[in-house]
Amino acid sequence: MKIGGKWSLGGFALAVVLAAGGAMAHPGHHAEPAFSKSGPVLSYFSTPNREHLEIKGDAATTLAKVVVELKAPSDVLVQFTSGLATVTPDGCPCSARVSLAIDDHDPVVIKRVNLGTMVTRIGDTYQPDRQSADGSYALQLPAGRHEIALIAQRIEGSSALLYGFYPNLQALAFPSGK
């Protein structure tokens, strides 16, 4: 944008902010609940808000789930984003596994997340520790209906307050012709 006959990036940024207007409001205050959709190419589960799921004890907790209905054998790319958090130092450090469960098969571990380590303390004060739980996994699936679930499970420590935040899961199918 030109201001006073000179190009200005600051003026451009101001124009973008002004043009965005109400779209820049923080979505967490009145956002929609989690939602999902299944389709022939893309299936997804999205959480656009501040909901969190408690990961209780050592039990596996499903954070998100999608269903894919394949007309032919396909290569499937599964992607996910989420966050894990502990809000108290009791029982920490601790760690959790993030896995994908496909149909009735044993879960495939994709990532390990460490929480509540000493670096989360400032002096004697514990700071809630949030770590990303993001990953992807590609696999071949035969034609038919398949359920894919994003699972978190505590594997070390005894924190009673472990949470999953903002889970988002996508499965993209690419027919392989096999």
Characterization of the model:
This protein is mainly β and 178 residues long. It is built from 1 helix and 15 strands. It has one helix at residues 9-20, and strands at residues 2-3, 6-7, 35-37, 42-46, 52-54, 61-70, 74-86, 94-102, 108-115, 121-122, 125-126, 129-132, 135-141, 144-156, 162-175. Strands 3, 4, 5, 7, 12, 13 and 15 form a 7-stranded antiparallel β-sheet that branches. The chain has a 4-stranded antiparallel β-sheet with strand order 6-14-8-9, with no helix packed on it. Strand 10 and strand 11 (125-126) form a beta hairpin. The protein is elongated and about 60 Å long. Residues 7-29 have low confidence and may be disordered.
Question: In a nutshell, what does this entry contain?
Answer:
The chain has 178 residues and is mainly beta.
Looking at this protein, list some descriptive labels.
178 residues, mainly beta, seven-stranded antiparallel β-sheet, four-stranded antiparallel β-sheet, 15 strands
> Helical stretch count?
1
Judging from the principal axes of the Cα atoms, what is the shape? elongated
What helical percentage do the residues reach? under 10%
The end-to-end span amounts to 54 Å
- The gyration radius over C-alpha positions equals 21 Å
Given helix and strand content, the structural type is mainly beta
Total strands: 15
Write the H/E string, N to C. Answer: EEHEEEEEEEEEEEEE
* Largest sheet composition: 7 strands, antiparallel
Strand content: over 45%
Average pLDDT score: 77
Uncertain stretches: 7-29
